[in-house]
Amino acid sequence: MNRTVFFVSESTGITAETLGHSLLSQFDTVEFEQVYMPYINTELRARALTQRMQEAADRDGARPIVFATMIDNEIRDILKGGPCFYVELFEVFVDPLARELGVPPSLKAGRSHAITKPSYYTKRIEAINFAMSNDDGIRPDNFHRADVVLTGVSRSGKTPTCLYLAMHYGLRAANYPITEEDFERGDVPQLLYDCSHKLFALTIDPQRLQLIREERRPGSPYASLKRCQDDIRLAHQIYKRLQAPVLNTTSQSIEEISSQIVKALKEAPEGRSASVAETGRGAQLY
For this UniProt entry, which residues form the secretion signal (predicted)? Predict the structure, then answer.
């Protein structure tokens, strides 16, 4: 089954896209062609969009699905009148919330992603710059300034996780790659022990790691299954000495890994005495 999905908004469309993706993820037997349509903020643009809906309906043999966050009632009515299954997310969530709070919503477009708190926006930008400047152990002397430090073998997901933590949580994240030199001496620099209270280790299934490395360096010893197996085995020996929580990135998304890290940082006492047990889905506090 193929269906076209439109994410529509008067503003950036990020909210419509995020919520829409979450709902669509529950229907993995359907193939969705996703169309991102921000700034549909005039009646002319709305009518032009209904024409695109008709084209999609003719092509798919089924009306398209529209996830929208529209404030203007006239524009909303134009879209609702189009050949589509229309889901107005503000209508679904904001109106019941307003009734519960007893306060009318402001009905201003783009509020959730506007720079309404400049200090937090600045913090996120600084965190992104920090993550980029402290990637791959470039500046281990900066680990003391980091909110969180990740370690793991090459291609285990350290860099994208650091960037996600910076972009979405405003955390200064640094990472240290465990290299052949570390394996040869059987340990990592003392700097990692010094930041053990904010250190997390990433692991990954060797077969999955091989596929990732093979894309980067096809046919190389670096991408061989034996090398991947050895790297993971030796890395876990180091993790035990570090007493670091271990998170498995094999089948978890960056978002899931990041949320576990944030949860652990919030819940753990100073100096982090909480234990972490590795499970099939990654590390969980107990």
Answer: none
